[in-house]
Amino acid sequence: MPNDEFEKIGSVWDYWETMIKQFNEGDAEISQEKSRYEGKETRVFKISSSPFGTPMEIKLTVDAERNLPIFLNQKEFDANGNLT
Predict the structure, then answer these.
(1) Domain carrying residue 18
(2) The whole model's pTM is what?
(3) Number of structural domains the chain divides into
């Protein structure tokens, strides 16, 4: 595969960065804080949104040095605020 094909793939972080930007353009509340995970510096993104009328909370922890996602936690809630 030629090098230009590899360039089209992008990085894992590119995907999440695009998702965060899309949430930010909508009704989402986004916060970012510094943290540590297993001795490494991390950035934690907390996103609260209601896409398609379904309330959800997303917590994305990213290795601050390599911009690689470490883990993602997503919760969705019903109309009564109960976890689904």
Answers:
(1) 3-76
(2) 0.72
(3) 1
